[in-house]
Amino acid sequence: MAETLLEHGAAEAIAGGWHGDPFSVLGPHKRGKTWEITAFVPGAERLWVLTGKKADEAVHYPGVPGLFTHQMARNVTYRFRAEGYGNTWEFDDPFRFGPVLGELDEYLLGEGTHKRLWQVLGAHLITHEGVAGVHFAVWAPNAERVSVVGDFNIWDGRRHPMRRRGPTGVWEIFVPGLGEGATYKYEIKGPGGALMPLKADPVGFGSEHPPANASVVRKIGGDWGDADWLKTRASHHTVDAPISVYEVHLGSWRRAPGDRMLSYLELADQLVAYVADMGFTHIELMPVSEYPFDGSWGYQPVGLFAPTIRHGTPTEFRAFVDAAHRHGIGILLDWVPGHFPTDAHGLGRFDGTALYEHQDPREGFHQDWNTLIYNYGRVEVKNYLVSNALYWLEEYHIDGLRVDAVASMLYRDYSRKDGEWVPNRDGGRENYEAIAVLQNMNITAYGEVPGIMTVAEESTAFPGVSRPVNHGGLGFGFKWNMGWMNDTLSYMQKDPLFRKYHHHQMTFGLHYAWSENYFLPISHDEVVHGKGSMLSKMPGTAWEKFANLRAYYGFMWAHPGKKLLFMGQEYAQGAEWNHNQSLDWHQLDIAEHKGVQSLVRDLNRVYRDTPALHVNDTRPEGFQWLESNDAEAGVYAWVRRGGAKDKPVVTIVNMTPLERTYRLGLPDAGTWREILNTDAAIYGGGNRGNLGGVTTEKTPWNGQVQSAVLTVPPLAAIYLQKD
């Protein structure tokens, strides 16, 4: 055979790990009139090329340890056998395989319109050209060289440098023989050859257990048993549906013996059964996208495509969702597109440049959270985020996304002083690019996945959050009503003696209740950072604290808007939430806590079973004040109405510790049955009320023709329905 035609400079660049196009050198290439295989196998002293039953020894390239060449008359399929330092091993040459990504993938990636980014980027278990292995692909447009490294190649970036795919900035390689569970990262040489910290896969489907942070090859997809749920779920997500959400932090809802976090499979059994028993319609999970630091509760995610390994594998997470669906319970995920942490293995300066984030810290750095802000105006970043939202909905059958900290995305001056932010092109504060990402996410989610819902945690008066995009809105299905939550909790924390001076904190929400499709959220944010538990917020004696909380829940469930409670609030946990330990389930041995739990269970049942309490949650025809101004008595009363044939419900709430004998106008003549009374003994109350109901008399009151005299217990809410 003739001498190798491989240039010495190229050989040294391969061995040194700085060659920008390794596939032009390694593997089989036509050089002159023959085919020549070039292989770089660090640690090999001898190398054989295996073709069928034949083994030909390759020639060691002079002066470059581990580099071999072998010439053949034609290009044929082959394997290698290597020998070095007393070891022998066989393997397929990753550089003999052609590209995996097709031209259409390249086009869509370059355009930033690949809706299902996860199908082409990340690590995929495939069979390619008849061989099983893993295909890796990653976007790093400004890198001079990208390699995949892991235990399988001794974390040596010279062994599996990747193929650059034209102008897309995507690099790919097929590594034969790798299987599920392999750990990996990307070794990236940035502009000028600067070596970056090893990076986890931005589209990785799995991760190591923290504090380790390599990506892990994981299979996604599999069998589902939730077809019946998916057929009907759209009806569970309309503005007319009863929606009552139980917000959960999976790591601290309950612990296993030994203070171990529950697995997804244990949660599929225990949590799903509990939520079904309590009558909630949905579970909302605080972020499950992989995150490095437990104390962030998931709100500083690094692995947006990886369910956290803290509770198990993607397959086990899928089983958890499936179990919830088979019980008729929807799953909502907290989704965090507002920022990402600065951890070295994350997205920050991913390819040596500000790739996912803004270069200018006035746009790219969150002062509140010491995190980085996505560059929403970059088409690839927009595509990354929108595709991630679709990923959870499609691959894991998630029923909806609650989008975190929307206000921080909408405004360029969010939490910034003058001079610390960059105005938009019109000189204003609105972040047009972030708005476009949110609109695009909602259009894509609702357009591609029938029956889902999206919910915005948005704390300002930004207009049209839950209005369709084609009507100028952001396109969310619902919006958290933070104003209602702040006003009503402020009122409830006051001594009843002074509540009369703040009476309209409880009524103000009705002035704007129909401007958006609202959720009433009492979330984890209200029971952390020294704010105390819901119970400890309430004033008065021990008995009055429980009564106040029961009255508040009664007020909330009869108020227009979908419902959300954070775990532990449903039984009035005494202590503030601590993410490092289980909820205090032992408190259910105490009658008062058990009573609040029973009340929430019954509130959910009455809310679900009574159309008047949910059908018109977002429409003014579903609500009418009977008494909104009696500040002296601390009484509120209103009517809720559903459809034309649905029986109305009247709610009366007494927010003082004095029992009231109270005349109330009622919309129809006849007997009104007491369908719920938060002072019932079963809930821990004093069992005061109206012996099951009241009958009206023709005494006009509150603008109604009929009225009745009611006994309204102290710190209590009563629901009446026409018999």
Explain how this protein is built.
- An eight-stranded parallel β-barrel has the order 16-19-22-25-26-27-28-29, surrounded by four helices.
- A hairpin with a 2-residue loop joins strand 1 and strand 2 (34-40).
- It has 723 residues and is α+β, with helices and mostly antiparallel strands.
- The radius of gyration is 31 Å and the shape is elongated.
Layout of secondary structure:
Blueprint: H1 8-16, E1 27-31, E2 34-40, E3 46-51, E4 54-57, E5 59-60, E6 67-72, E7 79-84, E8 87-91, H2 103-111, E9 122-128, E10 131-139, E11 145-150, E12 163-165, E13 170-176, E14 183-189, E15 215-216, H3 227-236, E16 244-248, E17 255-256, E18 260-261, H4 264-278, E19 282-285, E20 289-290, E21 303-307, H5 314-326, E22 330-335, H6 361-364, E23 365-366, E24 371-372, H7 379-395, E25 400-403, H8 406-410, H9 432-448, E26 453-456, E27 478-480, H10 482-492, E28 518-522, H11 534-537, H12 542-558, E29 562-566, H13 591-609, E30 623-627, E31 635-640, E32 649-654, E33 660-666, E34 671-677, E35 693-695, E36 706-712, E37 716-722
Parallel strand pairs: 16-19, 16-29, 19-22, 22-25, 25-26, 26-27, 27-28, 28-29
Antiparallel strand pairs: 1-2, 2-6, 3-4, 3-7, 5-6, 7-8, 9-10, 10-13, 11-14, 12-13, 14-15, 17-18, 20-21, 23-24, 30-31, 31-32, 32-37, 33-36, 34-35, 34-37
